Amino acid sequence: MAFTADSILNKMKEGNFSPLYVLQGDEPFFIDQIASYVEKNALTDAEKSFNQTILYGKDTTLVQVLESARRFPMMAMRQVIIVKEGQDLPDLNRKSSQEMFAQYAATPVPTTVLVICLKNKKLDGRGAAKKAVDKNAVLLDTKKLYDNKIPGWIKTFCKEKNYKIKDRAVNMIAEYIGNDLTRISNELEKLMLNYNEETEITETLISKHIGISREYNVFELQNALGVKDVLKANRIVMYFNENAKSNPFILVVGTLFTYFSKILVVHENYSQNDQSLSKLLGVNPYFVKDYKTAATNYPKLKVLTIIEHLQDADLKAKGIRASLSDDENLKELVFKILH
Questions:
Q1: Would you say 138 and 34 are in contact if contact means Cβ atoms under 8 Å apart?
Q2: Is the CB of residue 53 less than 8 Å from the CB of residue 68?
Q3: Chain segment 169-203, per-residue pLDDT in tens
Q4: How far apart are CA 177 and CA 277, in angstroms?
Q5: CB contact set of 18 (below 8 Å; sequence gap of 6+)
Q6: pLDDT digits (tens, 9 = 90+) for 232-260
Q7: Cys staple from 137: which of 20, 48, 234, 259, with CB 3.0 to 4.6 Å?
Q8: Contact at 8 Å (CB) between 249 and 218?
Q9: What does the alpha-carbon distance between residue 51 and residue 159 come to, in Å, rounded to a whole number?
């Protein structure tokens, strides 16, 4: 059975904890979210001192974890064992350990809640352990969200915390931070500590608390390029070059590549209505007009040329192709886009 982070959390919130969870894959946010919920809620505070064990992969072995999982709780209905950074377990891929894990997963101890976190790693899909976990336990296979899903995720995250957020604020975060859900959630939670629930999060609050300049950020750079505002684009470039650590060249190149790729999508689907275009672009319908304006300012052939320039800039940023300094490369790139 396929599980999602939401479906697992909903079951837990109903008080239903399974004996064995394997949380694996490329998106650490969901792994940490579930492990944290178990740590805080599976036992009462009085039960935790004797029945909750937090282990780290580099400090234990899978065999030791399974031996601990077979013990009975003390004066409680269950014990909880959480293995963080389980990808560092030294015997995780050892055949004998995998066989022991398969045996345990086939009949997990019902009075234990064992959570094994495998970040950026997965159980061998062909092995007996994976098959036993699939059949008898809760397996969460996490994947990084696509960039076009990030704005929706941000809005949902804020809504669940009882905060409103403006679309432009959402896009500032998505463009600046990208798909790092852990960082996005941490930044938003720090901001929320300063304001009551029901507060609307605006671009001003984002600039103040997350350190994204309202006027000089990559989101504003792409807007300036979209309307061919040469003066503003060059001002932002100067700001970026003076604050290179906060605005690394490779990040700017990646963001602009995504932006002009979306303009190309507009060219290829211009006859579609705004609602359909918003789905194709992965943006709020409010911003479709901005992409249409950019498509008017940049003919399809020019967009294809710009994408070639961006691919060349990416190779320079990665040191694969000989280049000037990053600040000179950025000036050159923006000049080529605008002219």
A1: no
A2: yes
A3: 998 888 778 789 999 999 999 999 999 988 899 98
A4: 24
A5: 11, 113, 137, 138
A6: 999 999 988 888 887 889 989 999 999 99
A7: 20
A8: no
A9: 34
